[in-house]
């Protein structure tokens, strides 16, 4: 890894995670371990050679480790170490800051990236967010969203029987369009792009907690 020859903590951090794709690899592992193939699906624009190199560098830095899942999977996965998980708040802060940047003309959003976006844009508002866990299903991926007492949102991979409502969709784009107001919820339900089960009121409160970020290219609000 290249050094900045600078004693500053920021420079020393960038020596470890400042290479292109490094922090996005960490982003894809925040919610749990993944196989190499899962990482390539979450980062479709990265070559396998570059991904392998970044994983080796992150392993060498003590941020990522490899292990084999027990039966019946018996799959080799990558996961963050305790030190790697310390980057979570940094990534959330970067996500909040970056959400105000103009969107690029082309691009994709991984499922894990959308979950991170939900965390960084969550705003329960005066009515408050959901009072019970909500299951979020995007294709084959399963998540549980829980409102924090401090006004934040925690998203974890997996399922639990404590969820009172389920929000399900077959693709990332449909959920993104609904939560950020690019598509009306009624239209998405009618077209089968988004489905709600269980306590509809809790599901609606959850979906209403994500104001679209105002980007630097947007006109200033009237008045």
Quantity of strands, as a count:
7
Radius of gyration: 19 Å
Query: Strand fraction band?
Result: 15-25%
**What's the rounded overall pLDDT mean?**
92
- Largest sheet geometry: 5 strands, mixed
Question: Helix content range of the residues, please?
Answer: 25-40%
Q: What characteristic shape results from the CA principal axes?
A: globular
How many DSSP helices?
A: 10
Low-confidence stretches: none
Helix and strand content put the structural class at alpha+beta
Strand order of the largest sheet: 5-4-3-6-7
How far apart the termini lie comes to: 50 Å
> What letter string, H or E per element, gives the SSE order?
HHHHEEHHHEEEEHHEH
SSE arrangement:
Elements lengths: L8 H9 L4 H8 L6 H7 L5 H13 L3 E5 L7 E5 L1 H4 L2 H11 L12 H11 L12 E5 L2 E7 L5 E5 L7 E5 L2 H8 L5 H6 L3 E5 L1 H8 L16
Parallel strand pairs: 3-6
Antiparallel strand pairs: 1-2, 3-4, 4-5, 6-7
Helix pairs in contact: 6-7
């Amino acid at each position: 890894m290249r050094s900045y020859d600078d004693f500053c903590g920021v420079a020393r951090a960038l020596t470890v995670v400042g290479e292109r794709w490094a922090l996005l690899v960490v982003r894809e592992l925040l919610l749990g371990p993944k196989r190499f193939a899962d990482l390539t699906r979450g980062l479709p624009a990265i070559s396998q050679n570059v991904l392998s190199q970044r994983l080796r560098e992150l392993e060498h830095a003590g941020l990522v480790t490899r292990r084999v899942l027990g039966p019946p999977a018996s799959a080799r996965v990558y996961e963050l170490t305790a030190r790697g998980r310390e980057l979570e708040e940094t990534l959330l802060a970067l996500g909040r800051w970056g959400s105000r940047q103009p969107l690029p003309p082309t691009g994709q959003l991984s499922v894990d990236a959308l979950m991170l976006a939900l965390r960084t844009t969550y705003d329960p508002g005066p009515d408050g967010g959901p009072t019970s866990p909500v299951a979020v299903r995007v294709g084959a991926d399963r998540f549980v969203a829980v409102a924090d007492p401090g006004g934040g949102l925690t998203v974890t991979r997996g399922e639990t029987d404590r969820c009172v409502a389920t929000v399900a969709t077959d693709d990332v784009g449909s959920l993104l369009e609904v939560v950020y107001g690019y598509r009306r919820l009624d239209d998405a339900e009618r077209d089968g792009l988004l489905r709600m089960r269980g306590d509809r009121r809790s599901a609606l409160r959850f979906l209403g907690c994500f104001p679209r970020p105002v980007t630097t290219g947007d006109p200033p609000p009237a008045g």
